[in-house]
Design goal:
By secondary structure, this protein is an alpha/beta fold. It has helices at residues 44-51, 74-83, 100-104, 106-110, 116-129, 145-157, 175-192, 203-206; strands spanning 2-13, 16-28, 33-37, 59-64, 67-68, 85-89, 163-167, 195-200, 211-216, 219-222. It has one domain (2-98, 162-228): 3-Layer(aba) Sandwich (Rossmann fold). It is built from eight helices and ten strands. The relative contact order is 0.20.
Length: 229
């Protein structure tokens, strides 16, 4: 599960100190499907980055699946990001000079534990799950936006993560492709039991989730739990 306690985050802009997060307390249970909603600048992406171990400069405690992230070394954080959590971003962050297969295999570059054949079979399996096994040898610049995002999702689930963190994953897609991506998240949550947290400003995206957490000006203003718990 995810447990955040009194998370504070600020940064200096010249002579001005900007407060991004203001004492965030939040818990998300294992297996939940949650939307994190808020206006631009509300702090939702910063919160996502802290949960995912991408941002370690904050005060308070962030515990994710039993690991207090501030206690982890750089190496341990790298392993955490590779095996426990995966990310899907609005911009797909694919390597255009590599074919789809090798983009999906990227997580194995950092912590290879299987044979090349086993890794390739795993990559082909996840590509089949997102409906893109026939694009295995294509490069990203020959794919549509929706296909690129599905490759990014295949890469994200390659290592069978416990937690999938998504930052405006449909923001660069048209409505049809956006719906297809959301249906993939629905399936992954239902079939694999992955905990899914989606940052979004869209009520249509949030409608796919079982719970919506609202954040405003760096504070959680609604946890989405009955009775505000």
């Amino acid at each position: 599960m995810i447990e955040l306690k009194t998370i504070e985050k600020s940064y200096r802009d010249g002579d001005k100190q900007n407060q991004v997060l203001r004492g965030v307390d939040l818990s998300i249970d294992t297996g939940e499907y949650v939307a994190l909603m808020g206006a631009s600048g509300s702090g939702k992406t910063t919160l996502l980055n802290i949960i995912g171990g991408l941002d370690s400069v904050y005060t308070g405690t962030a515990t994710v699946f039993g690991k207090e992230l501030s206690n982890l070394s750089d190496k341990e954080l790298s392993v955490f990001r590779n095996r426990t959590v995966s990310f899907v971003f609005q911009q797909f962050h694919l390597l255009n000079h590599l074919p789809v297969l090798h983009n999906v295999l990227m997580p194995s570059w950092f912590h290879p534990e299987k044979t090349d054949l086993e890794l390739q079979e795993r990559a082909l399996h996840v590509l089949d799950r997102v409906g893109l096994a026939h694009k295995v040898h294509s490069t990203p610049n020959h794919l549509s936006g929706g296909e690129k995002q599905r490759v990014a999702i295949a890469r994200a689930i390659f290592s069978a993560p416990k937690l999938l963190l998504c930052d405006e994953p449909t923001g660069a897609l048209d409505s049809e492709n956006g719906q297809r991506v959301l249906e993939l998240f629905d399936e992954l949550h239902k079939t694999d039991g992955i905990t899914v947290l989606i940052v979004t400003h869209s009520s249509a995206v949030a409608a796919h989730c079982a719970r919506t957490i609202a954040i405003s000006d760096g504070r959680v203003v609604d946890t989405g739990r009955q009775g505000g718990k």
